[in-house]
């Protein structure tokens, strides 16, 4: 588009709630820039769903759009219902790693398996930032949190690889340091037919940053830069060498029949059978 981008064109006149250095602002900016570059002058062709957590505040109530703020971990089944009723709309879910990879994990996996035609953006700050800094499914091994004072015992869940394996049409991971790549991934996800998933690894200075001795976003972004590896690099490394690294890139992009298409085909077949009988 030739029109100059301004984030305020897509937002209500409200003060954003995010802490200083929070990556949610970058994720919001990337998404809205992607929407702008795809030619959307407004968000009337979108519906947004979110659960509970810092990242869930990205669309609701700040986007000048229809949005549904759901209970914790339940944004994906709500988004599925919206898509089935209004297949003409772009249905987008925003959530955090606790919301989508913790309590909502089963919904995430089965949405990918079904290839539900929605877009999911998971902002991964590697901790439960809003509720006190508890260990999350994505917390790196050995990191101390309020619930693991001697360090996390569990390896972090590789959510992107899980979603890609389950059957997603599109899956990618970038950090908020990779602004251009993250924006392009957003554009690819919006235009993908089928389930699309983006993990945006994001700084949370007050919770995660403090736990690892980094007090501001700049330090965390440097950490992202130093620890990020491409998929090609990661393929040549051992499991031990990859510990606590961030493997970025596009994990999968493919075309599969969507859940909505299968439902529509089934309904047509049922109607045909009913008419014949």
Give structural attributes.
37% helix; 277 residues; alpha/beta; 16% strand; 8-stranded mixed β-sheet; Rossmann fold
Structural features, described:
By secondary structure, the protein is an alpha/beta fold. The protein has a single domain (7-276), classed as Rossmann fold. Helix content is 37%, strand content 16%. The protein has ten helices and eight strands. It has helices at 24-37, 75-85, 97-103, 105-114, 159-166, 179-190, 205-211, 217-227, 231-234, 259-276; strands at 46-50, 66-69, 90-96, 119-124, 170-175, 196-201, 228-230, 246-253. The protein has an eight-stranded mixed beta sheet, with helices on both faces. Helix 6 (179-190) links the parallel strand 5 (170-175) and strand 6 (196-201). The chain starts with 23 loop residues before the first helix and ends with a helix. The model has no long low-confidence stretch (mean pLDDT 94).
Principal-axis shape equals: globular
**What is the rounded distance between the termini?**
53 Å
Based on helices, strands and strand pairing, what is the structural class?
Answer: alpha/beta
Number of strands: 8
What is the helix/strand order? HEEHEHHEHEHEHHEHEH
- What percentage of the residues does DSSP assign to strands (E)? 15-25%
Largest sheet report = 8 strands, mixed
Radius of gyration: 19 Å
What's the CATH topology name?
Rossmann fold
How would you concisely characterize the structure shown here?
This protein is of the alpha/beta class. It contains 10 helices and 8 strands. It has a single domain (7-276), classed as Thiamin diphosphate (ThDP)-binding fold, Pyr/PP domains (Rossmann fold, 3-Layer(aba) Sandwich), CATH 3.40.50.
